[in-house]
Amino acid sequence: MLKLVIGNKNYSSWSMRPWLALRANDIPFEEIFVPLYTDQADKDRILSFSKAGKVPALIDGDVTVWDSLAIIEYLAEKFPEAKLWPSDRAARAHARAISAEMHSGFVPLRSECGMNLHRPIRAVALSDDARANVARIEEIWADCHARYGKQGPFLFGTFSGADAMYAPVVHRFRTYAIPVKAEAQHYVDAMMQLPAFQQWTSDGLAETLRIERFEDA
């Protein structure tokens, strides 16, 4: 059985992404939780799974894949029936492009609005760069809806790897009371109704471990 090493569900947006890709597609896997930012023993435990020293990490027999997007790519190849990428070549290229943009971009929004499901919902003053990130994400969501909305409520109709990559942003928008334009609100609603998204949220809210460095925002 596949094994997925993850961090705290309350905080670890990168862990959430491949976890959703697996759970939303009913792909069996063993979940291995290692608390983040604790003691050396936990750091060593993560290193025992991946020399990168970070979560998530996917273990498939003698194959280990680290990095959220790389894991999603691996799952798409191993489980083609899950259709983690659209079958149409142009749509597939589009899905990969916006996933890569999420993977490497939106740094101001990440740094100013860290993922913390326990955080009381309230707005913060965003920088111009973070507001530009929000606008770009709304643009992506609205554009996908205009192109593929007739096929379903997610970015490319049915749930895909791109949705797994953007799912944590839905939590950031909710937690930091960031208003979403009507053209993009449909996507927030669809994601929050996804059973796998709801399960991750419920599990994260049930956690009692706190990382103080993430509790100040």
From TrEMBL:
Pfam families the UniProt entry points to: GST_C_2 (PF13410), GST_N_2 (PF13409)
Domain annotation GST N-terminal: ranges: 2-83
Superkingdom as given in the UniProt entry: Bacteria
InterPro entries: Glutathione-S-Trfase_C_sf, Glutathione_S-Trfase, Glutathione_S-Trfase_N, Thioredoxin-like_sf
Protein name: Glutathione S-transferase family protein
UniProt source species: Bradyrhizobium quebecense
